[in-house]
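Sample intake sheet
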Amino acid sequence: MSRVGTTERPLRVAVVGAGPAGFYAAAAFLEQTEVAIEVDMLDRLPTPYGLVRGGVAPDRPKMKSVTRLYEKSAEHPNFSFFGNVELGRDVSVGDLLVCYDQVLYAIGNEADRRMGIPGEHLTGCTPAAVFVGWYNGHPDYRSARVDLSCRRVAVVGNGNVALDVARILARSPEELRVTDIAEHALSALCDSRVEEIVVLGRRGPLQASFTPAELRELTELRAARVQISAEELALDETSRAQHDRARPRDPRRQNVELLTKIARSTPPRARRTIRLRFLVSPLELLGDERGSVRAIRLEHNRLVEQRDGSLGAVGTGQVEDLDAGWVLVSIGRRGRSTPGLPFDEQLGVVANIDGRVVDLETRAIRPNQYCAGWARSGPRGLIATSKVASAEVVARMLADAARGSVMEADRGGRAALESLLRDKGVRYVTFEDWKVIDRVEIQRGLARGAPRSKLVAIPEMLDLVEMKRRGW
């Protein structure tokens, strides 16, 4: 039998998850020349690109252009895509370990963190990820209940996603129409009655998690103005000292300087207002007689230095009720457990050490199983930063294989997976099939001058692919 990693017997790797981490890992495998490799990528959706397609805001076309790099990997002769194949539903961890020498899980963080406060069950309290998926045409959220009839929306959280949803809520129909926003979302947002979006941060402006670029974009909206209270913008003594020590290009310092500029300016009259608030934490959601959100109870905070030198928010006892008909919660993501994979409930990630999957109890390494991206680290960093992290895990996988972790048994790889899926009656989607969907979406978008109009129902995508295969 030929040695694993040769042309006669390539190293056969399965990458589960077709988002940025998965594609960057595939690129790292395919660009190296020391080991012959076949990479098969699986995703539970018929469409590739994960967060880039389903998470990046529709008014961010430059961020979406990274898919051109992913497409180069997908066109490599040693790469195959298996869309509409879900781990735990269509194939098991055991199935993949039989078919492949190594398995890399790049399954992201698909669950939302909750606030854990009374009233969170009320109608009108929605995870921001649901709203993001809804306006991006993600099949999971195409039928989400989105009520834009209220005057004020409260967004809990102070990161980029919080500003994304505020920006989409504030944009004019003319601005949205030329993006790849889902048709159902465009229709609803064009009829929106929302006048004010209040973004709530529990700590101060220096501790905000959003980037200066994201903040600056709010000030460039045609139909909205940004307002900030000078009182909440004031820095405490420790924050002021940290600000003054920070380099001029430090994002935290840039945020404060931009926020200060906004607070001192006189915003023009506009149809909508985005109000940025700091040093407030949600205590409770208040409901009306129909069981819907009518207000959010907030406690004002002060910052207290922690043992590690960071500043934590501590309630002052001062409480206010902010009327709001809809509350979007944007306080982070966490992974979901997958059958057959050890899951760290505390961290919300696949149990791992440096990307090597480990047993939850003993912490012993599970040979030839790895994880990358947010499945490994939790929701940290931007899309671009996952490139280096994925490459690091790939380097460990190749090093382990070189040390003999991969048995020389003849694993069928691609052919074995295809046979398994046929036997199970799984309608999987190839990358060529995805291109059929892609072309139809682009053609649909031309009618409104948009880059694409997404198909949002999986059966519709699969039927389209089947029609093309049959030449209809």
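Comment: The two ends are 45 Å apart (CA to CA). The chain has two domains: 11-110+334-429, 114-331.
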